[in-house]
Please model this.
Amino acid sequence: MNTIESTNLGRVVRIAVPVLKQAGLGSQISAHFAKAPGFLIVDSDGGNESYLVTAESREPSECAPIRALARAGAKVLICHGIGQGALARCHEAGMQILKAEGFTVSEALASFRDGACPDFPDGQLCCNHSDHHDHGESCGCSD
Model:
């Protein structure tokens, strides 16, 4: 069981999910945090959706809009892939990072509510950043 859910039973938690395009709870989860064109931020009960466009929300030194996600109240990030540097910066921003179960935001939320989204395993961190950084800037991610 993930620690956010186990310590906050009955409480609504703000969750950020990197998505390929805005389609509400049916949005398909992006394969990699830093390559997502946007993020759906939603309450753990499926309500109160908002969408952040990565290119418009991230700061120049970021691959993804980590500070904007934190300002939007995200306490949990559910994703399929993330690099070590981004993981560390999300933790510094007070977010817990969980491994996505399912392909859509709706499926990931259902898994989260069931306690089936594990903490992101260190052995599955992305480490080949040459495949992910095409925005022409250094984002500070470390291998």
